[in-house]
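Thread: pyridoxal-5'-phosphate complex, take 2
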Amino acid sequence: MIFDLKLNDKTSKKLQIEDYIKKLINEGLLQSGEKLPSTREMGLMLKVSRNTIIKVYETLCDEGFISTTKGKGTFISGKKIRSNTGQHLKWGSIINDYTKKAENLDIIKHEMRSKKGMISFDSISPDKNLFDLEEFKRDFLNILSLEGNNILNYGYAKGYKPLIDCLKKYMSDKGIDFENKDILITNGFTEGFDIVLSSITEPGDKIICENPTHNTAIKLMKLHDLNITGIAMEEDGINAFELEKELKEGRPPKAAYLIPSYHNPTGIVMSSQKRLSVLKLLNNYKVPIIEDGFNEELRYSNSTITPIAALNGRGNSVIYIGSFSKILFPGMRIGWIAADKELISYLESIKRSRNIHTSFLDQAILYEYLMVGNFDKYVKKAKKYYKEKYELAIKYANLYIPYTKLSGEGGLHIFIEVKGVNSRKVMKECYKKGVIFTPGDIFFTNNSGEDTFRLSFSRVSKEEIERGFKIIGDTIKESLRRI
Ligand SMILES: Cc1ncc(COP(=O)(O)O)c(C=O)c1O
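Output below.
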């Protein structure tokens, strides 16, 4: 009990009780808005007359510590706590190297941010106006009434079984053989990749990836203290010749991280032949492949492309990480790892030790959404919507931007290179004119790419694509004139 004051006979009981209540308020043990016991109850608790408590409350009221509302009771008021026991620590000198590194690599904090009213080509998040909220609400209510309390309780680290089965079917349809393979549900690609790196790498290990590559992946590889070896990109994916040379002559890598479909940032889709040759090559050197299945669904032409994990058949050397973040709802943070059964069992332990499991409520809603056929409907709608914007982006890039190289075969962005132009300088000028994009250098593993630009079109209107690309193009032309 909070009011357990032992009164002494040395000073007045009224003063002792006043000081005691003030102390509780100052130390934060009684918070603003909290109700005090009635004068009768408090008198009984402290073994003093009710009259004494009435006088205590009157004084505290006068001093602004408490206030009384007729018919409701007596409450702690919002008076500022003047605690002299509070400690002030310099957290900047307490945080460890990992935290300092994470803060340094946190581009959201350190890069220029879009402001309201600007034309933003910087984010590859989906357009929220495409989300079918009414359908989502129906699915939410359906699954809640079907599952009841079950999905509000603790679940399994591996994930919500119906969703796992549904994803197995989804992946099997892409050609992946599930004999001796399994799935772990994660909080998006990002957690999946972090868990995989935690399970197979040690600080100092070498990891191969495409150069440029996904910035979040670079951040995680750096946070795991890995030695990143970036291999240049060609028009049809990673340069296999350079990859082979690295495998032959360099230190053996622990893994290779690849984004074969709508590679971020170049938007390049690795050709089928290259998928096969890269797989063979890495298998020959017994290097596990971490395949990022990012955006596979956003293919605007009708031909399908087989994931590397499918080409590997019954082999278990490919760890596939999937995510619906860029097509469906990134806010749900649901992704999955499809890999060898034994490996998934190890990864499951890491997942459990970190955050027990991904929200079962979210997984169940996503399952319902997929099961009732909404996903297919949505992908159709999204493809049509983004394809139109993609075509406009290509059209206006050709019309307004004097690029030396352009890539992007689908997805939500295009990538350009303008030889001799510094994209950060262009960005500063464009920012003043209300346009923002992502300077390409953040995606490079070797401090290069200063003449590259990633232009995302997912969240801008068609009219903004034209207006924004013209501003970028004009700014680049001005910059070229100054050279
Ligand atoms: C290459 C790549 N993979 C995966 C993702 C999705 O990550 P997450 O599922 O954590 O949102 C992104 C998002 O930008 C990406 O660029």
